[in-house]
Write a structure and sequence with these properties.
Blueprint (H helix, E strand, L loop, with lengths): L1 E7 L2 E2 L8 E8 L2 E9 L5 H10 L4 E3 L5 H9 L3 E3 L2 E2 L2 H10 L25 E2 L2
Parallel strand pairs: 1-5, 5-6, 7-8
Antiparallel strand pairs: 1-2, 1-3, 3-4
Length: 126
């Protein structure tokens, strides 16, 4: 499995469409075998799903995400775990162990507005 997490300073970035980096984890048998950070080069909402598809990501962990991005990821066959906050490494460990707390309804619906890192629907993981 290849997992991408929206990434900023070691934490899950809270707006998928504005993420400047993904931390990408390769996993095998429930363990992380490799992790690397990739730059999105300022790509917008639509291009981000394409970037993830091109690098064979099948799972995304993020904070808030808009409906259009959800559709694009769904069309690309990428499973979404939204509404996550906290440390990216811990989030991936929790996903692999079946203990990730997420909110499948987490959305960002205020596109075009500057709103920092506070999109709705964030759930902290323990």
């Amino acid at each position: 499995m290849r997992i991408a997490v929206t990434f900023e300073n070691g934490r899950v970035f809270q707006h998928f469409g504005h993420t400047e980096r993904f931390k990408v984890y390769d996993t095998e048998n429930g363990n992380v075998t490799m992790a690397t950070t990739i730059n999105t080069n300022g790509s917008g909402h639509g291009a981000l799903a394409d970037i993830l598809k091109k690098i064979s990501v099948d799972t995304l962990i993020c904070g808030g995400i808009g409906a259009g991005a959800k559709r694009a990821l769904d069309e690309a066959g990428i499973q979404i775990y939204a509404g996550v906050s906290g440390d990216t490494d811990i989030a991936v460990e929790q996903l692999l162990s079946g203990n990730l707390i997420y909110d499948s309804q987490a959305t960002c619906e205020h596109h075009g507005e500057h709103h920092g890192n506070s999109c709705g629907g964030q759930i902290s993981h323990k």
